[in-house]
Structure formats: structure tokens, C-alpha cells
Design a protein that fits this description.
The structure holds two protein chains of two kinds.
Chain A lengths: L2 H12 L4 E3 L1 H4 L12 H4 L5 E9 L10 E5 L15 E4 L13 E14 L2 E13 L1
Parallel strand pairs in A: 1-2, 4-6
Antiparallel strand pairs in A: 2-3, 2-5, 3-4, 5-6
Chain B lengths: L1 H15 L11 H10 L3 H13 L5 H11 L6 H9 L5 H12 L6 H11 L7 H9 L7 H13 L13 H13 L7 H7 L10 H17 L15 H16 L16 E8 L6 E6 L3 E4 L5 E4 L2 H9 L17 E7 L2 E6 L6 H16 L3 H12 L5
Antiparallel strand pairs in B: 1-2, 1-5, 2-3, 3-4, 5-6
Helix pairs in contact in B: 2-3, 2-4, 3-5, 5-7, 6-7, 7-9, 8-9, 9-10, 10-12, 11-12, 15-16
Classes of the chains: A alpha/beta, B alpha+beta.
Chain lengths: 133, 389
């Protein structure tokens, strides 16, 4: 179960350093549902990236998580993150981790594009997070 | 044939035409519930938008939810969305007033932003709302006082922009709010923030401020923004800032200078606390093994605790070396951090164990004895929110 993600992570590392991406790029435009996303952002689709931010639970709770939201705000003081201000990160299958309370650097493959549920866009940035440090 | 085609196109267009909300046709209780409790963030946001667009019609359901589940179960995303919506119904403005004035409500600063954005649209209430905003100019919570000053600036009171502010996050936020709402502030604040890299106990607040400033300038400059690759500074920050200066000067007419990078004083921090409270305001304290205590997110002030007073605290530090996060954090929280053995935990209100509370009260006592009675009082009042009862 753990071998495939590890192998993918290894292959990603062998393929070269991940592209360093900041929220100034991901969030640097006013997102409107259905819009054509900027090329700077769509160019990152399916790229292995490295991004710094803060872990946030999608739902308040406690205990380890298998997925989390990565935002550019430690305290929630930036207001509600817009959908282009959040990366929805998923850990490899079967993996969980404790929420970290400090800035983290997440590496993994980013997927860019509107994802809908019940006819509503629920995310535009998803990431298969291979490492969280 | 043409008529048939027209009819087909018309039918299809109507089917996809965005429907305006008919407040009477919406189950506001369900909409509010979804905005507060849906398991997906995006679904909560979409429902929040529906509630916000409902204006006064949604207010009874909001009040009922708060009554039933507790006011702090209303998420910040819902309050933010209502704050940023257009509605100026009296019932909605009254609800925002109540929320903003309730010190126990986590998202009172968001509610105050709702007042700030509506005040210019309500000429008959301008004076009243201006006074309300002014009453929060010195609020201990940085987000409250920043929003209050922003609101008064929108009403034409430029003196509110010039009020003294020690928290670097607040200085950046006021400038970005103003810029986003068509009022160009002194841009040097944002230019200086672009070079911020300081952090506090692993919280890289400086980078977050730099990103916030950059995003605001990027949106304001639009096509005049000079940097390729999404405007990323990754690689060479100074080069990026230098490229931004020209367009910013040109558009604002202001003289701007390159920022001087501010580095934290190199001291060996052993531990500290980060108390984030929308009620009492934030409190940042970190200390060295020999009793140098720094305060402020930028560690801007220092207190030296005499060795005789510090030694007992240091020897008893295991009382504050917590292994696990405690309680469910919704908003306000206390982070306790030690570097050796390394630990970093978050504590929700009413969840800090008595031994840890006592240790921090003793810290407050020695800080007071060292002549910093205001800081000691802030620590005691901040602790009150987190002490387990």
C-alpha cells in the first residue's frame, strides 16, 4: 500500500527538484467560478511543486489527519480563504499525520482545475502530498 | 426556421440563466445549517454566499442557529461572506453591530468589516457608525482596531490611517484593505513588508505578510505588474522588489525606497507561547534558558528576569512542557512551544491544565517584578480564557 506513493515520490525526486511555488502566484488573481485560470497557474497542473503554508483542518476536530487544507495564514486573520487561496492536500493512501502548528513545506504533485460536488466548485488546487516538513 | 432557432436558443439560455434568489422560496434554516456544518469547505462557502445574498431575510435563521448551537459555532467563513456582501437591510446591520460588539464572538472583526463596508452606503447612519468604528481604534485585538481604522478611513477620516501601530501585521493589513477599496495608502508600508522574513517560534509571519503585500500590489497594478511566472519572488526577492518599485511609484506618484531587511536578534530561544485571541488580543512571548524574555510577534521588546527569579521557573519548566494539543480549536488558541525537548502544541480555550496555568502565572509575576506590569497584566488576562475550569 505504501510502496506506490513512495515510488512516485522517489521518481519525482529523480525527475528533478520540485518547482517552488508561492501563494503570491496561486492567489494572485480574483477567482470567479467558471473563469479561465491564469496561465501562470495552469502551467503548474500536474507539476511536482514545493509550497510553504499552514495546515488547517477542513472540519474542526482533533487527532491525526489524512488530508488537510494548506493556507497562507497562521491564525485565520486573513479572512476566509478564497478557493484560489487553498491547496487541498491528500496524504498517500493509508497515511495519517498530526496537524503541525508551525509553517510547513509541502512537496507533491499539484492538480489545477475546478472540482465540483453537488454542482458547486469545491476546490481548484489539489495536491498529492508526498512530504510535509 | 429562424423563429424555431430563436426559440431553441431562448429556451436553452433561460435554462442556464442565473436565477436571482427569491428570499421567500429559500429554506434559510437549511441554508444556514449547511453554511455552518457542511463537511466540505467549498460547500460551506457556497451556502454562505447564498445566506449572505439573502440579506435581512436570513437573519432570523442566523439568530436561531446561534441560539441553538452557540454563537461561536457560526464559522468565520459565513461571517466573512456576510460582511463582504452588499445587503444594507436594517436587520442585517443590527446583527453585524451585535456581533462586532460582542467580545466573546470570535469573528467580531469580520462583523466590524461588514459595518465598515456598509457605513459609506448609509448616509443617514454615517455619524453613528463612524462613532462605533472609532470606539474600536485602540482595541487590544489587532484585527479589530485595523478594521475600525479602515472603516473610518473609508468615511474620509484620514487621521485613522496615521494612528500609531506596533504590530507589523496590522500595518500591512490596513494598507492592503485600503488599496483593495480604492484608497491608495502610503505604499512604503507594503514595499517594506515585501522583504519581511521574520518568524516567531516557527510561525513565518513575515513571509505571510510579504505574500499579502505582494498579492495586494499585484492586483492593484494589474497588467503593469512587471514580474513573469506569476509574479513569484522565489529565487531573488531583492530583484523582484526592485522591479516592482518603478510601476508602484508611477501609479501612485509616491517616492518609494528599497526596503531594508530586518533580521531578528540572534538569541537562542528555548521556548515560548503564542496566544492568539480575538477577545483579548494576541500575546507573543519567547524566552531563553537564562531568562531573557522577548515580547511581540517581532520580538520587539525585551525583559531580563533576574537569575534568582528565573531559576525556579526554569527548573519547574516541565509543568509547561505539554505533549499533546488539548481541546478543539475553532479560532482563539494558545500555542506552547519548546525547542528541547521539542514540542509544539495548541490549546483551545478552557483546556490549559492547572500546572501549566500556574507556571505562566509565575512567569507573569516575575515579569511584573522586572517592571513590566502591563505585559504581566496582559498575560494574566489572556490566560484566563485558556485555563481549564
Amino acid at each position: 500500500m505504501f510502496r506506490l506513493p513512495l515510488l512516485l515520490g522517489l521518481l519525482a525526486c529523480l525527475a528533478g527538484d520540485p518547482t517552488k511555488v508561492g501563494f503570491a502566484t496561486l492567489a494572485g488573481f480574483d477567482y470567479q467560478e467558471g473563469m479561465k485560470l491564469p496561465k501562470d497557474v495552469t502551467d503548474l497542473d500536474e507539476q511536482v511543486i514545493e509550497v510553504r503554508g499552514f495546515m488547517q483542518r477542513e472540519v474542526p476536530g482533533s487527532g491525526p489527519v489524512s488530508s488537510f487544507m494548506l493556507v497562507n495564514d497562521a491564525c485565520g486573520c486573513n479572512g476566509t480563504p478564497k478557493l484560489n487561496e487553498v491547496i487541498f492536500c491528500t496524504l498517500p493512501d493509508g497515511t495519517t499525520m498530526d496537524m503541525k502548528t508551525v509553517t510547513v513545506t509541502v512537496t507533491g504533485k499539484l492538480f489545477v482545475g475546478e472540482e465540483k460536488e453537488d454542482g458547486v466548485v469545491i476546490m481548484i488546487y489539489q495536491m498529492d502530498a508526498d512530504s510535509v516538513q | 426556421m429562424h423563429l424555431l432557432l430563436l426559440a431553441c436558443v431562448g429556451a436553452v439560455s433561460l435554462a442556464f440563466w442565473p436565477k436571482s434568489q427569491d428570499p421567500a422560496a429559500i429554506d434559510w434554516t437549511a441554508a444556514v445549517d449547511k453554511a455552518c456544518t457542511a463537511s466540505r469547505y467549498g460547500l460551506r462557502l457556497a451556502a454562505a454566499k447564498q445566506v449572505a445574498n439573502g440579506g435581512g431575510a436570513a437573519v432570523p435563521a442566523l439568530r436561531a442557529f446561534a441560539q441553538q448551537k452557540g454563537q461561536n459555532q457560526i464559522p468565520g467563513s459565513l461571517v466573512d461572506t456576510i460582511a463582504d456582501a452588499d445587503g444594507v437591510d436594517a436587520a442585517l446591520v443590527e446583527l453585524l453591530r451585535e456581533w462586532a460588539g460582542n467580545v466573546d464572538f470570535y469573528y467580531r472583526a469580520s462583523a466590524l468589516r461588514g459595518i465598515a463596508l456598509r457605513a459609506p452606503k448609509l448616509p443617514e447612519r454615517r455619524e453613528e457608525l463612524g462613532k462605533l468604528l472609532g470606539s474600536f481604534h485602540q482595541d487590544p485585538a489587532w484585527l479589530m482596531r485595523t478594521t475600525a481604522r479602515f472603516g473610518n478611513a473609508l468615511l474620509g477620516d484620514d487621521a485613522a490611517i496615521a494612528l500609531a501601530e506596533t504590530d507589523p501585521r496590522a500595518r500591512v493589513r490596513l494598507a492592503t484593505l485600503l488599496l483593495a477599496h480604492g484608497k491608495t495608502p502610503p505604499l512604503q508600508t507594503l514595499v517594506d513588508a515585501l522583504a519581511e522574513e521574520r518568524s516567531f517560534l516557527g510561525n513565518s509571519w513575515g513571509k505571510a505578510c510579504a505574500d499579502e503585500a505582494h498579492i495586494a500590489l499585484k492586483k492593484w497594478l494589474g497588467p503593469a505588474h512587471p514580474l513573469a511566472n506569476g509574479g513569484s519572488f522565489e529565487g531573488d526577492v531583492q530583484k523582484g522588489i526592485r522591479a516592482l518599485l518603478g510601476p508602484c511609484q508611477q501609479k501612485s506618484g509616491q517616492t518609494l525606497t528599497m526596503p531594508v531587511a530586518v533580521a531578528a536578534r540572534p538569541v537562542a530561544i528555548a521556548g515560548g507561547i503564542e496566544l492568539l485571541s480575538c477577545k483579548h488580543g494576541d500575546l507573543h512571548l519567547q524566552w531563553t534558558a537564562d531568562g531573557l524574555v522577548q515580547t511581540g510577534i517581532d520580538a520587539g521588546r525585551e525583559v531580563t528576569i533576574p537569575a534568582a527569579k528565573w531559576a525556579p521557573l526554569w527548573n519547574d519548566r516541565t509543568a509547561l512542557q505539554l505533549r499533546d494539543s488539548l481541546g478543539v480549536v475553532l479560532c482563539d488558541n494558545l500555542r506552547v512551544c519548546w525547542l528541547a525537548p521539542e514540542s509544539n502544541v495548541k490549546i483551545a480555550p478552557l483546556a490549559l491544565p492547572p500546572a501549566a496555568v500556574n507556571w505562566l502565572k509565575q512567569l507573569a509575576a516575575v515579569i511584573e517584578e522586572a517592571g513590566e506590569s502591563r505585559l504581566a497584566a496582559d498575560l494574566r488576562s489572556g490566560l484566563d480564557q485558556f485555563a481549564a475550569r
